Amino acid sequence: MTDATDADAPGAAGDTATPPMISLRAVDKHFGALHVLRDINLEVPRGQVVIVLGPSGSGKSTLCRTINRLEPIDTGEIRVDGVPLPAEGRGLAALRADVGMVFQSFNLFAHKTIVENVMLAPMKVRKTKKDEARARAMELLKRVGIADQADKYPAQLSGGQQQRVAIARALAMSPKVMLFDEPTSALDPEMVNEVLDVMVSLAKEGMTMLVVTHEMGFARRAGDRVLFMADGQVVEDTDPETFFSAPESDRAKDFLGKIL
Ligand code: ADP
Ligand code: MG
Where is each ABC transporter domain found (predicted)? Predict the structure, then answer.
């Protein structure tokens, strides 16, 4: 989480040597006739935790997916740590390594053990040696509180545990940015907090995060900033306290009226 008063922090205003960790400039995207992202302009300083809110279909998932180039954009420019997103090829694999993503569905490899799931990408993409990849994977599993499950298979774990593995797997690539797209939406209520707690600790450690979530407690506790989207546009961009206590737009008022 960033502290706005800390002018010496990397990425703080005035530090011209440090580019924003994520920047989108005039980004537009269509799915056929559907204009799904409309002129998105966004700069996320390093260490900032951005909560993305908005009604279903407003473009939240598409926004996340464009940032690690799972979806190409029509026009505009996206940079991660100052580097424009490459179109294809090897640059793309490196970019995906820099931008970790955690989805609603955990997407673990069912036929691999938990520790193998976490070791895989570093070995394939970063060419990390097996022993080193295993040691690092165990460290990360410990960090998300499931080192004791390392040799089990995904189906033997609860949803909350699987989602924590998915977070560890993304962290194994030492990403600069973590994108979370409704990471707790598929979980039984009693498992939501164990995942949010891991995300809060990541935020405290200074990870730059973009989090699509309906967990308003988390948004207030961990968020530095709220982006409210509607119809492919960023309608409000403010701090959580202001957003929740004094939303400006009718769309946001309507949205909050339905979820709070
Ligand atoms: P959100 O995550 O806010 O619910 P999405 O980004 O998933 O919204 O979707 C925004 C709009 O784009 C929706 O109308 C959705 O149906 C449409 N959409 C999303 N993905 C695709 C796709 N691959 N092809 C066509 N339309 C899509
Ligand atoms: Mg979505």
Answer: 22-256
Measured by CA distance, the residue closest to atom 26 of ligand 1 is 31
Tell me whether residue 79 is exposed, middle or buried, using C-beta atoms within 10 angstroms of its C-beta: 0 to 12, 13 to 18, 19 or more: middle
Tens digits of residue pLDDT in 88-138: 666 677 777 889 999 999 899 999 999 999 999 999 988 999 999 999 999
pTM given for the model: 0.92
Q: Are 89 and 257 in contact (CB under 8 A)?
A: no
Roughly what angle, to the nearest 10 degrees, separates helices 90-98 and 114-125?
A: 140
- CB neighbourhood size of 131 (10 A): 9
Which residue's C-alpha comes closest to atom 21 of ligand 1?
Answer: 31
Of 3, 77, 70, 84, the residue nearest 41 (C-alpha):
77
Q: Which of 62, 213, 259 to mutate to test the pocket of ligand 1 (most atoms within 8 A of CB)?
A: 62
Taking 50 as the threshold, does the pLDDT of residue 5 lie above it?
A: no
Atom of ligand 1 at shortest distance to CA of 71?
Answer: 23
Has residue 14 got a pLDDT over 90?
A: no
Output the ligand 1 site: residues, CB below 6 A. Answer: 31, 34, 36, 54, 56-62
- 3-state DSSP call for residue 78? strand
